[in-house]
Amino acid sequence: MVNTKLYVGNLPYTLKDSELSDTFKPHGNVISAKVITDKESGRSKGFGFVEMENENDANSAIKALNGMELKGRKLVVATAKAN
């Protein structure tokens, strides 16, 4: 199976799922975008996952966004590791 799920680290703590999705949309079709939050406090843990429609979109997003600054933080974008 082709891995189109991306790990996105060093996210600004104020970033919402919709903003994460909007950041990736210029690089292809976004299937899902989720900022991971603490279950008790509801605050962002500073990372999330984005699923792209296909491998080309995923690779394009990695090339364009890894190291890009977003709200003062440099993003870390890589292929998510399988569980």
Please describe the topology of this protein.
Blueprint: E1 5-9, H1 17-24, E2 30-37, E3 44-52, H2 55-65, E4 69-70, E5 73-74, E6 76-79
Antiparallel strand pairs: 1-3, 1-6, 2-3, 4-5
Structure description:
It is a single chain. With 83 residues, this protein is an alpha+beta fold. It has one domain (5-79): RRM (RNA recognition motif) domain (Alpha-Beta Plaits, 2-Layer Sandwich), CATH 3.30.70.330. Helix content is 23%, strand content 36%. The chain has two helices and six strands. The strands form two sheets. The protein has a four-stranded antiparallel β-sheet, with helices on one face. A hairpin with a 2-residue loop joins strand 4 (69-70) and strand 5.
Quickly describe the structure.
By secondary structure, the protein is α+β, with helices and mostly antiparallel strands. It has helices at 17-24, 55-65; strands spanning 5-9, 30-37, 44-52, 69-70, 73-74, 76-79. The strands form two sheets. It has a four-stranded antiparallel sheet with strand order 2-3-1-6, covered by helices on one side. The chain has a two-stranded antiparallel ribbon with strand order 4-5.
